[in-house]
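Cross-check.
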Amino acid sequence: MRASYLAAHDEFVAVGEGHRDGDGLWVEEPDEGGFAGVAFSRAELETPEGFARFAGHRRDQAREDTPRPTGHVPCTFFWVVDDADPTTYLGSLSVRHRLTPFLLEYGGHIGYSVRPSARRRHVATDALRLALPECAALGIDPVLVTCDDDNVGSARTIEANGGVLEDVRDGKRRYWIALDRGAPA
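Predicted model, tokenized:
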């Protein structure tokens, strides 16, 4: 998936969306707490070894005992792929295992992004639907999902998955999705 992931990253950069849901941040500087961080250059990600290290780092972020910068929480990253060609990267989705004060106000439990060439095909709607059982398995219920107030597509995605708008704060729409809906009638 390396070539497809990097091509998607180039699409994001071309439309001014170089940083999305943590997946676009390849270089982290040490924070005041002394965390050494982790760095991935574009040149390194173009190599099989560098890309494998990057993917391993993403997988490790789900573990509670993985070192991470101050203020970051365990997070499970999912890469969204094309059903017809599983080597084609369409986007990413991250499930944050718990909320910090910042995530409660702005980021929520779930963040997602879809590469520009795959938008308007219900990719985000399907990815969010598939992530909700993962949230339930982590004991997250209800699930907070946010989007920019002017992002109509993302608002529709969240609402299609049962999101109920709580409010809008500082330009962020805050939705709650209840997972314990009981048995179907």
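Helices lie at 2-14, 42-45, 48-60, 101-107, 123-137, 152-160. The chain has one domain: 2-177. Passed to J.P. for a second look.
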